Every structure is written in C-alpha cells, then in structure tokens.
Amino acid sequence: MPAALRFVGEDKDLTLDELSAFVKAAERAGVSGDSPVRAELSTSGKIKEVEVPLD
Predict the structure, then answer these.
(1) Is this structure's pTM higher than 0.90?
(2) Per-residue b or e along 12-32, where b marks 16 or more CB atoms closer than 10 Å to that residue's CB
(3) Rounded to an integer, what distance in angstroms lies between the CA atom of residue 6 and that of residue 13?
(4) pLDDT lower than 70: segments of the chain
(5) What is the structure's pLDDT at 1?
C-alpha cells in the first residue's frame, strides 16, 4: 500500500482551517496539485477525513 497523507477532523468533521492545513502539508510534502484527493463524508455530507497519496 502506498504512503499517504491523511487528515481527520478533530471534532469528527473537518473545519476549513483543518482542510487548509491538509493542503499546506500536502504542498510541503511535494504532492502535485493534480493528485486526486480521497474524502470520507458523513451521512450529512460533511468531510470527516481526507487523504492524498504521497507517491
């Protein structure tokens, strides 16, 4: 399984600040801007976690 950068919301759902931190961490890790992002959503459609491959 390839390495990945994964962020999970501290209070169940991600906040905009947490999503921003995820993007900044991905950029620092050298992840290309055209890399696909996987997201897990709650039943209400809120983002619970995001992940991007580091390869």
Answers:
(1) no
(2) ebbeeebeeebeeebeeeebe
(3) 14
(4) 1-2
(5) 46
Give CA–CA dist 30/38, Å, rounded.
17
Tell me the DSSP string of 1-55: ---EEEEEBTBBB--HHHHHHHHHHHHHTT--TT---EEEE-TTS-EEEEEEE--
At residue 17, φ and ψ (nearest 5 deg) are -60, -40
Identify the pLDDT of residue 48: 94
Tokens of 16: 């905009």
